[in-house]
Amino acid sequence: MNFGEEIKRIRQEEEMTQEQFAEKLSVTRQAISNWENNKNLPDIGMLILISDVFHVSLDILIKGEENHMNNMTEKVIRDGSETRRARYNMISTVISGVLLLMGIMCFWIKACSVEYIDTEGFLHENFFLIPIGSLFVFCGIVSFMSIGIRTIVTKIKERR
């Protein structure tokens, strides 16, 4: 039994119209209709509310009565992977930004520092900041590009 059939069964067991069912869940009648016709699926928060209000196991809502994959199971799995992907992209973006900022800081420190020759004839210069800054900037740009490429590839795969 797919999710739409399961919602319809629960609603009919409660002897409720779509309007009454929607009112009890604080959603529109169209949302209930879309769920029952498998045009749309609720998020996990709404599943928990349905489970609490109508005293139905989340297992039945997500897996169905036969405990096999249905459209809701696939949606929950897909939502979880999208959340992980978004978290990974956010962390990668922050790291990329920090790398770029560190590279810019190295260049700024190099530009603002004073080179001098001491009394013994040694040159005091922060020459090492240029390659380090270049490395930070390069790593930040590569990281940003990998995030962009991964996002584009994911979107192309979703369209198929």
User: What class do helices, strands and sheet pairing give?
Assistant: mainly alpha
> Radius of gyration in whole Å, from Cα?
28 Å
Distance between the termini: 26 Å
Mean pLDDT over all positions: 86
Individual helix count = 7
Oligomer kind: single chain
Helix content: over 70%
Query: How do the strands line up in the largest sheet?
Result: 1-2
Largest sheet: 2 strands, antiparallel
Order of helices and strands: HHHHHHEEH
Spans of at least 5 consecutive residues whose pLDDT stays below 50 are none
**Shape type:** rod-shaped
How many strand elements? 2
Strand content is under 5%
Question: Quick recap of the structure?
Answer:
By secondary structure, this protein is mostly helical. Helix content is 73%, strand content 2%.
What does this protein look like?
- The chain is mainly alpha-helical and 160 residues long.
- The chain has helices spanning 3-13, 18-25, 29-36, 44-54, 58-63, 71-112, 129-159, and strands at 116-117, 123-124.
- It has a two-stranded antiparallel sheet.
- α2 crosses α3.
- The radius of gyration is 28 Å and the shape is rod-shaped.
